[in-house]
DNA sequence: TTTTTGATACCGAACGATCGGTAAAGTTAC
DNA sequence: GTAACTTTACCGATCGTTCGGTATCAAAAA
């Protein structure tokens, strides 16, 4: 392997930040080039499919990140409430304490390929499933657990939007504070 | 090519649909031209400030629509629960039963002018205020009413995002169903 | 009533800039 | 040398925007 200026992980995480900040249509190869330090043509060497492939990789990378830092830890043996508290801190980081939009949101606006749409849907469904499982583990019946899981994610996404418009991450922080009550038996 | 004319209201509502569907960056003058029936140059006659001015007009138009169909009716004398039910049906229409993104969401992504950002913030604050007042009217203390108002809007925005990703408006419909319980004393 | 006129609204064509994308040459590591 | 990788240079298309000119219509002038 010869001379790779920037690692795959860095390349992907920096691209993700650009996409999440400017949206799919607002993300230009020039911006990606600036953010990653790679020339446009170099991006095409890494991602022959161009912008669409980068967006898809960002979506899959987001899924992988969630799997590693949220889904899997929630599955490990241990106190559900304790695991949930750890997962919440991971989410706080992921969204930069409510200041960075969600990839699911910005990449799901019209303009993306069907592949991208599917990747986002898969990842979000996996998220719902992970939250459903932890809610069941803490004693809630299946149907109710599922309802609460969706409710939790709805509230995360919504508070990110509201917080962005109001220029105040208070709503997001409150949502994170309420997550344990939503996902475990109150 | 024959002359084409369109009323200010139509012009604005069609532009709003384009912006809400494709986002600020994804909305091109070509798309606006196609959606409104006016040539690009004609759009500049109506909006000398170009795309930014159209987006600002869409934001202010959204605020005006909400004021007329939601905020003001909620202020009129009458049973709070009844007024709320009517407002909910207006919101269902506004979001095309959960299939059309929210203008606050798509216009608040990076790229808009400070003026636009302010207009969105003002409109959302007015929405929160209107929901707070109706919650107070139905017997909730001020602080709790405000909390519930924000919660209601967070849930609307979040369910729109989740529904868009999952390709299923179920979450949005459920949110509307839950709104009375959120905004009035359960 | 008919004609003239001026303001308003609209359009076709073009601007420079930037878009996503490509080909080929140059550089680095093995 | 060769393969992996990056870069310079470039492409056609589209971006937001501008401008000269045309259509429309109401009011004034005939």
From TrEMBL, chains A, B:
Record carries keyword Methyltransferase: no
Domain HTH tetR-type: 5-65
InterPro entries registered for this protein in UniProt: Homeodomain-like_sf, HTH_TetR, Tet_transcr_reg_TetR-rel_C_sf, YxaF_TetR_C
Keyword check for Cytoplasm: no
PROSITE patterns given in the database record: HTH_TETR_2
Pfam (any one): TetR_C_13_2
Domain of life: Bacteria
Gene3D superfamilies referenced in this protein's UniProt entry, alphabetically: Tetracycline Repressor, domain 2 (1.10.357.10)
DNA-binding region: 28-47
An annotated Gene Ontology molecular function: DNA binding
Keywords: DNA-binding, Transcription, Transcription regulation
PANTHER family to which the protein is assigned, alphabetical: HTH-TYPE TRANSCRIPTIONAL REGULATOR LMRA (PTHR47506:SF3), TRANSCRIPTIONAL REGULATORY PROTEIN (PTHR47506)
Protein name in the entry: AcrR family transcriptional regulator
Species: Tunturiibacter lichenicola
